[in-house]
Amino acid sequence: MTSMTMTPAAPTNVDRDWVHWAIGRIEADFTRSADTHLLPVPIPALPDVALYLKDESSHPTGSLKHRLARSLFLYALSNGWLHRGCPVIEASSGSTAVSEAYFARMLGLPFIAVVPANTAPEKIAAIADLGGGAHPVKDARTIYTVAEDLARTSGGHYMDQFTFAERATDWRGNNNIAESIYSQMAREPHPVPAWIVCGAGTGGTSATIGRFARYHRHTTQVCVADPAASVFHRHWHDRTVDTCEGPTSLIEGIGRPRVEPSFVPGVVDRMVVVSDAQSIAAARAISRRMGKLCGGSTGTNIWACAQLASEMARAGQAGSIVSILCDSGERYRSSYFDDVWIARQGLDLAPHEIAIERFLDHGTLD
Ligand SMILES: Cc1ncc(COP(=O)(O)O)c(C=O)c1O
User: Fold this and answer.
1) Of the residues 202, 206, 250, which should be mutated to test ligand 1's pocket, given the most ligand atoms within 8 Å of the CB?
2) Per residue in 276-305, pLDDT tens?
C-alpha cells in the first residue's frame, strides 16, 4: 500500500506550457518507436487459409496496452485533466498499468495501479521497475471505486481505461492497431482479412478494429474470443445481461464480470467462447511454434482462430485471419507456464493441447 501526501494546486492556464511539454515528450517517444511486427503462423495443412499474429509484445512496455496508454495520456492532457505533479491512478489487470507507469515516469508524475490481488507478480514487479506503485484489492470487482477514491484523496486523476479506451483511441487511423494491420497485410495473398480476432478487456481493441473496418468499408468481420466466465458474450447475445456472477476467468486482461463502457457489441460480428484450459493449452502450443512465450489472452485468440480456420477450410473458403499476440508469456512463467500452478487450479490441459496441436499440424481442431 503506497500513500500519497502532496495535493498539487489546482491547475491554471500557466500550466499550458507544461501540457505542451508533456505532449511533446510523448510524441518524441512515439517518433523514436517502431511499429510492431505482423508474424505469419504457418498452417501447412491449410494452403488457402493464412493465419497471422500482430506481435504487440514487442512494444517498449510489452503489450497491446502500450498504444492505449499513449492515447489515454494524450486524451487526458488534451482535456486539461493532467497537470504538473498530478498523481495518475488506474484500475487495471496489470498490462495497462505497466504501460501507464512508463508514460507517467516520462512526465514526472506519480503513478498508482489498483490491481486484483492475484495479478501476476511479474507484472507488479514491472510496474515497480517503472517507478509506479501497486494497490492490490482482494475483490477484483472493486478496482474501479478504489481507484476513484484514491484519485480523490490524492488530488490525482483516475485515467479510467474501461470508460475512455474507445474514446481516446482514434478509430479512423492515426496508427491505430487496425491501420497497422491493414498496411502490413497489403502484399499478402489475401490482403483484406476475412476475420480479425481479438479479446476484450476494456473492449477498446475490438471497438477500434470494428469501427476502422466499417469506416474504410472493408469486408473483414470481427470476432471476439471471450473466456467462458466473461459477461461479454452473454451481453452480445442478450443486451439485457450486463453482469455475471461466479468466479472470474484466470486469463489476465480479458473477460469481465460487468459490461465495460468501451465494449461496443454493434461492431462485433461473432463471439467465440473459450475455456481457461483451452486458452492456456493454446498459449503453450503457439509459444512452442513461435519460439517465444505468449500470454494467456493470445491463447484465447488462437483457439478462436483455429475454429474459424477449420470452418473456412471445411467451407472451401480461401482467405486470411489476423489475430493479436497481446503480451509476452514471460509475465506468466509462475502461472500458465507452471505445471504446479496449473494443477492447483484443477485444470487438465492435455485434451486441449492435443486438439490445438492437431489443428496446427493438420488444420482441424476436431
Ligand atoms: C494481455 C491482454 N490481452 C488483451 C486485452 C484486451 O484488450 P482491450 O482492453 O483493448 O479489450 C488486455 C486488456 O487489458 C490485456 O491485458
Assistant:
1) 202
2) 999 999 999 999 999 999 999 999 999 999
